[in-house]
């Protein structure tokens, strides 16, 4: 068994949850925050048999899109202004950042 952790954008979360249910995957959706943008994103926890991991990855890939997002500059309060960029910078936020972990044991009580 594997545990898939997928960090995705909030906008894609309903689409992904529906697709996972449609393909008979069990999933838990958690609110999370990206360290770089400090903005909300969504993390899915999906437990599945090894043999279905590739299918789950395909469902995630098909449901999530990469988008450009503007990062507002943070002024260097009393700090070094040499590296300060006074205008918003665009970064591409990926469709999904996915980790696949081995599951040592799984219990439901
Ligand atoms: P954030 O940390 O808010 O990052 C959002 C986007 O900002 C990233 O998109 C990337 O394009 C850019 N970015 C992040 N760190 C950067 C840096 N030090 N310098 C320049 N640009 C940077 P993604 O790479 O697609 O990541 C989307 C979200 O996935 C991340 O949100 C974070 O919540 C999660 N994530 C990505 N890589 C991770 C990792 N290795 N471990 C844990 N979570 C990760």
What does this protein look like?
The structure is a single chain. 19% of the residues lie in helices and 38% in strands. It has two helices and six strands; from the N terminus they run E-H-E-E-H-E-E-E. It has one domain (1-72, 85-96): Alpha-Beta Plaits. The mean pLDDT is 92. The strands form two sheets. It has a four-stranded antiparallel beta sheet, covered by helices on one side. It has helices at 13-22, 53-63, and strands at 2-8, 26-33, 40-48, 67-71, 89-93, 96-102. Helix 1 (13-22) runs antiparallel to helix 2 (53-63). By secondary structure, the chain is an alpha+beta fold. The structure holds ligand 2BA. Ligand 2BA binds at residues 7, 34-37, 41, 91-94, 97.
Provide tags for this entry:
single chain; 2 helices; N-reg_PII/ATP_PRibTrfase_C; N-reg_PII-like_a/b; 19% helix; Cyclic-di-AMP receptor; 109 residues; two-stranded antiparallel sheet; CdAMP_rec; alpha+beta; four-stranded antiparallel beta sheet; Alpha-Beta Plaits; binds ligand 2BA
- Rg calc: 18 Å
Please indicate the percent range of residues in DSSP E strands (runs of 2 or more).
Answer: 35-45%
The mean pLDDT is: 92
Shape category:
elongated
Question: Which second-level CATH architecture applies?
Answer: 2-Layer Sandwich
Low-confidence stretches: none
Number of strands: 6
Q: What ligand molecules are bound, each kind once?
A: ligand 2BA
Helix amount, in percent? 10-25%
| Discrete helix count | 2
Number of domains: 1
Mind describing the biggest β-sheet?
4 strands, antiparallel
Q: Would you give the CATH topology?
A: Alpha-Beta Plaits
**Spatial separation of the terminal alpha carbons:** 18 Å
């Amino acid at each position: 068994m594997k545990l898939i952790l997928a960090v995705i954008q909030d906008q894609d979360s309903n689409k992904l949850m529906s697709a996972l249910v449609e393909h008979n995957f069990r999933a838990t959706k958690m609110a999370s925050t990206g360290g770089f943008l400090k903005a909300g994103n969504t993390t899915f926890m999906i437990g599945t048999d090894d043999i279905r991991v590739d299918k789950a990855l395909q469902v995630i890939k098909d449901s999530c899109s990469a988008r450009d997002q503007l990062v507002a500059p943070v002024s260097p309060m009393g700090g070094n202004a040499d590296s300060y960029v006074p205008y918003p910078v665009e970064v591409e936020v990926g469709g999904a950042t996915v980790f696949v972990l081995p599951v040592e044991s799984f219990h439901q009580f």
